Amino acid sequence: MGKIIRTNYLINRAFQMRFIFNSLLPILFTQFVIYLTLEYIFFRLKNHGISLGIDPEHTYFKLIAVERIFSLKVFFIISVPLSVTLSFWTLVYSHKIAGPLYKLDKYLENFKENYLSQNKLSFRKNDFFQELPVKINKILEQELKK
User: How far is residue 132's CA from residue 120's CA, in Å, rounded to a whole number?
Assistant: First the structure.
């Protein structure tokens, strides 16, 4: 039997999108602060040249403009793939949380309808909350004995 390949990682859209957004927020904020810092550094360099009385057409200002563009390009070349990678990783990670909760919800719905033919609850190997199926199966087993 082959390994099942997942095609749908968004099984609880509301939870997972909030999870991704909340995970990305700190890195996006940090990237914004780094961007502002870069802009501030080049602003200070330009103002320093002006305060020294350097002619606005001097190579110093041209160098600052070139280095500013280069620095911002490097910043965006690093930031965009990092954010995309983090988004994808967070989606996969959130699936390990949403998946077990989804399966538990479906299990309990089916249990209510047809509890005698129901298999024991189990989660995928790498999912979170591995202790829940053991506890739930034990409780349901005890209830069925009554």
Answer: 12
How far apart, in Å, do the first and last CA atoms of the chain sit? 38
Domain boundaries, the chain: 13-145
6 pLDDT more than 80: no
Measuring CA to CA, which residue among 76, 130, 79 is closest to residue 101? 130
> Nearest 5°: CA angle at 5, between 94 and 129?
35
Neighbours of 75 (CB within 10 A): 15
What's the mean pLDDT in 88-93? 90
Residue-wise pLDDT for 35-66, tens only, equals 999 999 999 999 999 999 999 999 999 999 99
Predicted pLDDT of residue 11? 82
Which residues neighbour 64 within 8 Å (Cβ) at sequence distance 6 or greater?
42, 45, 46, 49
Asked if residue 117 lies in contact with residue 87, where contact means CB atoms within 8 angstroms, the answer is no
- Helix extents (H) in the chain: 13-51, 59-113, 131-145
Q: What pLDDT shows up at residue 112?
A: 63
What distance in Å separates the CA atoms of residue 68 and residue 9, rounded to the nearest whole number?
40
